[in-house]
Amino acid sequence: MKVVATNKKARFEYFLESTFQAGIVLEGSEVKSIRNNGLSLSQSFVFVEGNELLLKNCYIKPYLCTASFVPDSRRTRKLLLNRREIDKIISSSREKGYTIIPVKVYFQNGLVKVEIALAKGKKLYDKKEKNSVQG
């Protein structure tokens, strides 16, 4: 498993309750760009539209050697999960205080996978406690 990008602020800003492995729908040369570490998860998030999970604001750098089709670098991308997992994530995210965030992007058996987590936001005093324990 080759990790391409991680969301470094995720563990600082949120308590990660449960994680899921999702596929992602990509177009054109986006996979080649991801292989060249041209992906950033900062400020990206997952939202629900209908019965689908969509990844928003994930930046994939345009691949330089592409001649004809260059997809938008910050477009919304669909995440691929089993129906039972989608239903569980949607029902849990509707509870107060829960959100869905991308944690990391990696390659598994040649396929791009996104690890998403059901997370609950930390309060300011939770963040201070963590910093005082470490430092």
The number of distinct structural domains comes to: 1
> What is the CATH superfamily classification?
Small protein B
CATH class: Mainly Beta
CATH topology: Small Protein B, Chain: A
The profile of the biggest β sheet is:
7 strands, antiparallel
Order of helices and strands: EHEHEEEEEHEEH
* Category by helix and strand content: alpha+beta
Description of the molecule:
The protein is of the alpha+beta class. It has one domain (2-129): Small protein B (Small Protein B, Chain: A). Helices cover 24% and strands 41% of the residues. It contains four helices and nine strands. It has helices at residues 10-13, 30-35, 83-93, 124-134, and strands spanning 2-6, 14-24, 39-40, 45-49, 52-56, 59-60, 77-80, 98-108, 111-121. The strands form two sheets. The chain has a seven-stranded antiparallel β-sheet. It is globular, with a radius of gyration of 16 Å. The chain starts with a strand and ends with a helix. The model has no long low-confidence stretch (mean pLDDT 86).
Q: Helices and strands in order, then pairings?
A:
Layout: E1 2-6, H1 10-13, E2 14-24, H2 30-35, E3 39-40, E4 45-49, E5 52-56, E6 59-60, E7 77-80, H3 83-93, E8 98-108, E9 111-121, H4 124-134
Antiparallel strand pairs: 1-8, 2-7, 2-9, 3-6, 4-5, 5-7, 8-9
Task: Name a few traits of the molecule.
135 residues; Small Protein B, Chain: A; globular; 4 helices; two-stranded antiparallel sheet; alpha+beta
Can you give me a brief rundown of this structure?
This protein is of the alpha+beta class. It has one domain: Small Protein B, Chain: A (Beta Barrel), CATH 2.40.280.10.
